[in-house]
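Re: Re: token formats

Sure, here are both.
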Amino acid sequence: MEEHSSPIKTPKQLIFVVLLAFAVPITIAGLLSQLVTSGEKGMADNSDHVLARIQPVGTVVLAEATGPKGMMTGDQVYGQVCKTCHEAGLAGAPKVGDKAAWGKVIAQGEKTAFDHAINGIRAMPPRGGNSDLTDDEVKRAVVFMANKAGAKFDEPKAPAAAASAAAK
């Protein structure tokens, strides 16, 4: 009797054993994955619990709530909108306090300066790019900047001040 003989005696037996060596583990893995992933999980959950589980972690606030429209001063509008271009003179914007640059604007008059600020001109977008500003807020910003360069423009009154003046 041979001690070291193989139980596989024919090529058919070898092919059969090799196929089983691949098929059995693949079949076992498939059956295990079916066992783990089968069934209806979470279907009995209350919808309130599901919504609480998937709610956002935080929120993004793009702008804080502000007071009533039309109440910002020229200085406030300048600080929020106009300062970016008019402080550095970007895209040909006249710098605040530059009497030579603002002299051309002042010479055209209040009405034209207001119209250009509200409707835009050249590189300047309408309302300085902030469509939420009222006409009076834009005018106050123009008055603020022009008066820094020596103009004597009159600032539009706030709606509350205008209403109280009309009541007198």
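Second one below.
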Amino acid sequence: MHTDGFPKQEQEQPGLTGPMDPRPDHGETSYVGAGRLAGKRALITGGDSGIGRAVAIAFAREGADVAIGYLPEEQEDAEDTAAWIELAGQRSVLLPGDLTDEAHCQWMVRETLSELGGIDILVLNAGYQEARDGLENLPTEEFDRVFRTNLYSMMWIARETIPHLAEGSSIITTSSIQAFNPSPELIDYAMTKAAQVAFTKALAAELGERGIRVNAVAPGPIWTPLIPATSWPDKLPTFGQDTPLGRAGQPAELAGAYVYLASEAGSYVSGAVLPVTGGKPL
């Protein structure tokens, strides 16, 4: 467990695991499954690294086959995640492409259905953020990229998936503490995270009668490739130090929340936002 700040470092988007110092913990050597998702089939966007990789590893060790979506630039990370899925004895499906393209989102769902035979768990996790120096300096193409990545793709993928979900299926979105406590330099990102909460609650109300649960996880400061790729290297030495636990979280510390919401342990939980924030209140 890393209890200090992080060295100054910077990456170009989308951010990769390899150059990170220190390397994030995705539960590779620590997560122990108990068959809680045996026979399930999951699609995870942004499953190549960070929270998505931790969830993919946990799901596989709980008995699920896992398809992951990611950008082509993240192929090496995706292959590493796939190796962990397969080491757990489960099937992996790699789905490279750009989530800001509607046709790709539709293809990704169809390919998962074809390769795995269905979808029982949909994790809408992919996200994009960048540090801003004032709304007046925010280019349209940049907030368009944030909205299309964080919101449009989520709508497209869920819309394509819902007709194929059976009773007992689960949809989980990755929102953020930013939905409730927005930082000015992440204004557009925070807007999308707040919208994801509304999406989660509205969709939970819509799908409840079909026995499909919809929930969100709201992470706080978590050490993923998105952080060094956000153009704020000066913040890294104190990243996460303002939480009551006094440190940033590791992706592995999120995995249990997703397993809970996807499994029978969360069978009466829907429309919820589960905070994993190091003690910061929503």
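The mean pLDDT is 97. The longest strand covers residues 213-219.
- S.
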